[in-house]
Amino acid sequence: MVKVSVIIPNYNRAAIVGDTVENMLRQSLAPHEVIVVDDGSTDDSVAVLRCFGDRIILLQQPNQGPGAARNAGLNLATGEFIQFMDSDDLSSLNKLEVQAQTLIKHSADMVYGPWLKAWMDNRCIRLENVVLQQRPLPASRHPLHWFLTRWSMVFQQCLIRRTALIRVGGYRKDMRLYEDGDLFVRLLLSGATLVHEAESLTFYRLENYGKLTACGRKNNGAQSDLQAKDTARFYSSVIQQLQAHPQFEAILSDIDFRSRVWQSWHRAGSVTSLAVDGTSEIKRLEAYGNENKLRLWAWLQQKQKGLQQRLQGHRWPRCYQSGKLSDRQQHLIQAMGLSC
User: Which of 137-145's residues contact partners 24+ apart within 8 Å by CB, and which partners?
Assistant: First the structure.
């Protein structure tokens, strides 16, 4: 029997975490276990979660950030496959079933499917104008190359083999805003295989509730500093890892990658409170190209996105394989009890 462990970290989401838990419990393939890790909430989250009784496994810990919370859940998990869900997001009711079948069929380590950003008010949902990843990434580049230059993903849209996560050691605990990207890079560098399925749909909620970490909620400047710090740390780590994998050396010379590195180090260099020495990192740009060239490239990319927005109605690069919501996907939404 297929066993899927669902892991949901939670911080101060009393108003909405119950919707996410219920969404997972209603899956056509019943999860083997739903593990909710409350990361030191100060609202009524724990009381809400206790209402589910033995239908979930509730773990409470002092606030340590989303990476530590997910690792705590992973340490408890016994399923073959792992579904990470943020405490505010939802998925179509066929997601676990479709993605588990896909992993088994292709003997893959990780599967990703269509997702979109949405605003939700009770049972009403308002969607962005396109669905992302209606089709797989273009095969012209390795997924890692796409990810470090033009593409991003969310783990909610994925299902992952537990053995692949254990092999790379799970999440880093010293990152609170870039921990997913760091884990994804390490998974791909370890040889994890990635496949696509087009039958499910994941909803990334856009709300005013904030995200998982408690840091910076009352101080936007503090959160910006934290983001700059984690982004700079992420790219510094990526460069070191890529240098140890010659098969991916082309990424290091890609101007899109260099531009991302430059922007991250430039922002970090303006934050005096950072542990990452952004100023010294910026000096290393001599190895990655002229700073003025990278600044111009970043500006041109923004202008291109603006033009694309006017012509196509969205800014997503082609690697996102975006498309309109299909009739089948509308039926998936209706089956969830939502209206749009």
Answer: 137/196, 137/319, 137/321, 138/318, 138/319, 138/321, 141/319, 142/188, 142/248, 143/188, 143/194, 144/185, 144/188, 144/189, 144/248, 144/251, 145/248, 145/250, 145/251, 145/254
